[in-house]
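Thread amino acids onto this structure.
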């Protein structure tokens, strides 16, 4: 059964691929838990790769890459803003 609150937020084909129930889920709050889970998934995918494990590994690696790109863009905007403020102040 679909979570009613998720049905208002997520629209398959519009802002997500699909909505489904998870058999299990875990919130990764800090970096240590995230990277421990990442290490476990990567080790499993490399030792005995199943299509699902390879898919998860690719998704995780893409998420890291996209996160790094987002952080880089944010830092560049901050730096450009600081330079513009300094140029306007002088």
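Threaded sequence (90 positions):
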């Amino acid at each position: 059964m679909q979570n009613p609150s998720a049905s208002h937020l997520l629209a398959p084909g519009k802002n997500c691929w699909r909505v489904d129930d998870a058999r299990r889920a875990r919130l990764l709050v800090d970096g240590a838990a995230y990277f421990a889970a990442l290490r476990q998934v990567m080790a499993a995918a490399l030792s005995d790769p199943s299509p699902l494990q390879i898919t998860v590994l690719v998704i995780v690696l893409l998420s890291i890459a996209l996160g790094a790109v987002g952080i880089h863009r944010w830092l560049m905007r901050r730096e450009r803003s600081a330079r513009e403020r300094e140029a306007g102040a002088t």
